[in-house]
What we know:
There is one protein chain. This protein is 44% helix and 19% strand. By secondary structure, the protein is α+β, with helices and mostly antiparallel strands. The chain has two domains: 30-369, no CATH class; 372-484, Immunoglobulins (Immunoglobulin-like, Sandwich), CATH 2.60.40. A hairpin with a 5-residue loop joins strand 9 (385-386) and strand 10. It is elongated, with a radius of gyration of 33 Å.
Amino acid sequence: MSEPAAVGSPAAAGGDAAAEVVSLYQSQQKIYARAVSGWFAGWRWALVWATQLVFYGLPWLQCNDRQAVLFDLGARRFYIFGLVLYPQDFIYLTLLLILSAYGLFLFTAVAGRLWCGYACPQTVYTEIFMWVEQKIEGDRAKRMKLDRAPWTLHKLLRKGGKQAAWIAIGLWTGFTFVGYFTPIKTLAAEASTLGFGPWEWFWVLFYGFATYGNAGYMREQVCKYMCPYARFQSAMFDKDTMIISYDEARGEPRGSRPKSMGHAAVKAAGKGDCIDCTLCVQVCPTGIDIRKGLQYECIGCAACIDVCDGVMDKMNYPRGLIRYATQNGIRNGWDRAQMFRRVLRPRVLIYTTILIAIVIAFGISLLLRSPFRVDVVRDRGALARLVEDGRIENVYRLQIMNATESPQRYRVEVEGIRGAQIASGAEVSVGPTEARWVAVSVQVPPEAGAALGSGAHPIHFEIKRLAGEHAAEAEVREKSTFVVPR
């Protein structure tokens, strides 16, 4: 039996046709994105400024004579303006992550990859690094010419200046990131003498290098190959999602034409509005051609809309050849109002309802949050013992966590067994944002112990914050067990 011909071989192609070898591994072609201005570009830069002012500025804000936002991992305290959170408050991080996830689902169902195109850190820092590159090396044509040119002093200065600026931005970003975990004023004093600790050195350099590499070199490859969102976004899209779309019915057949040729003459000649200038490809940060339809590489930055609208203005054609539209809208020729009416569809309403419910629950939980927390642990070194007068004593360890920034006093009481009382540790003082362990002895009279019988019996601790100059009364109940020996 003869073996089948290999794909691409002369036999497979038929006759004496020459075989064509196609490499499956091709080097990544560098993308030289052209600068663009317009409505959506303005929004992108507005969000660049907003996100970076928050990121770089937040660690320098002060609140209650301390850094306003500080995640002190060593002391296991998380300060967020007036809030002091402990690891036991992990539920708030869970709610925040759920809130972010549902927000992403909602925005994606309504208008596609808004997060990716406008607020994602990869997009934001790529925009910043590309701006630096353009200012130092020039526009798209100059950058391409510079890369093709041999190495000269001029090229070395241009490339070296760009690298120095990128490294500075990366290191400052790493420094700011660490400033959320180490007080940034302390960190700044250490930076003046390069006196960072080993972990501070690691995270400043690691985060700085990640920013430098991702935004300076990997750019679109992070969005195309590393980010999982590009792969599962289609599960959140439907035919009524507003996405960046090319109006093929209006644009085809594309082709060049003189600017003096009026729009009516173009239509009479059987041509579409697309003049095939390829500017939509040149401004795309991922290098795709939006005219080929929706592609997973599209990050929704809308740069192609801005540049195409500019071309349409110069040609005196109507804007919107590339625009935000839905698949149903493009296919059925709907106007913008008709497409917007389909926004409030069941999927969007469900996401919105869940999102509002989570926001309300999150807010109520913060408002009703107790100003202190208590953990009760039995002293395993002495489960139960007999003391004077035949009383039965159990010893407990209570961790009282003061979530305020003023000293507080607490009274410990016990209930659940008749005659039970606190023998020691009934009143406790805890400093600002302090977590203090205290030993508490609970005693039960012998007649109550005899009535209960041997074994473990439920009790409840009531820890009351005493009213003072800086606080009102508050109470926390925690359950435990009281052991009666045989």
